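Entry 14. Ran structure prediction on the chain below.
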Amino acid sequence: MKSQYVLPASIVIVGALIAGAVFLVSRGPGPQNPGGASAATRPVDATDHILGNPNAPVIVIEYADLECPFCKEFQKTSNQLMEYYGPSGKVAWVYRHFPLIQIHRNASEEAQASECAAAQGGSAAFFKYIDRLYSITPGEDGLDLAQLPNIAADIGLDGQKLAQCLAANTYAEKIQKDYAQAIAEGIQGTPHLVIMTSAGPVLTLDGNQPYSSMRAAIDQVLSALGESASATTTAQ
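Output, structure tokens:
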């Protein structure tokens, strides 16, 4: 698998909000913006799913596509980072949907399924659901969508209720809004990462960043805040 790839330019029409956008898609390690991040990044609010301390001085926002193979790989890194930083309460993680609908026809429905899981069990269930989905999908629309209720059952949720939630398109509008917001923020692919503090976004990174790069970036922000990174026995 290549570490980076590009989709031919596509025009995206998203209602009245977006007239059109030309963008790149899922990629491996990519460019960084050490000088800052787009001020357009939506602040974390009650609509977000947060892993860790919601009042953490540093919050990493990830924009991701559940069928993106690089997002699948990066999920391992994000979990490892939260094993390291999470116990100290200094870093939290926010996952936002950016299903690349031009190339991953399943991603939007999978994103809806994760929201249906959250409706049953909150953010904890949301993160368990995406962990389980990433663990079984080969990526690139390789997951049979009939498995979505089974994934719910695998993590202790009601699979039938999740199927009903999907059939009713309960969260279709939410996912469409998330997609439109990502385009409006100028995001060009997945995974896209924004490191936030209470002052706003301070750093962006694109692509499947290695653990060492993420550690360096987060430690840099913590240091600027006068915070030290707290290691745990599970850190690598």
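The helical segments are 69-85, 107-136, 148-154, 159-167, 172-184, 211-224. Will compare against last week's run tomorrow.
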